[in-house]
Amino acid sequence: MRSVLDVYAKYRGIIRLLILYVLSKKPLHGYGIMKELKEIMGKMPGPGNIYPQIRYLLRKNYIEIHEEVRQGRKRKVYRITEKGLEYLAENMDRVNEAIEMFSRLKHLFDCGFREIMAELWVLIKVWDKLSDKDKAYVKEILGRMKEEIAKILVRYTRETKASA
User: Global pTM?
Assistant: First the structure.
């Protein structure tokens, strides 16, 4: 089983690739990047998720900054570099896989998945403060959920093998 840190590290890498992907279409300012990522991910990532990745991509020379003046305001516009295009091309399989995964996640979000994840994060934060009875109940609920999902996946696997 992968650790939370493994998932987070992979997520960071995917966000970096998706930033390169949207910049390969056209130069964008930071908010424009976030809006484009919302179209892919189903949720707009916040500045705290995006700007550290932008700084990383700048340090690696995968993107560059150009200042643009619009309506009297200076804006930083990010553009992908040749090096960034090469790196993106080497990793397009991962980009396509991520886009497909986020597309599927949008369906789960429609079923309340995002809210469940938010509640689980809160649960993690307060876990030590819960009574033993509540902890046991949470374990029971999660155990039942895991079993039901496993049943669905077993059924899916059988149906897939039968149709092959």
Answer: 0.71
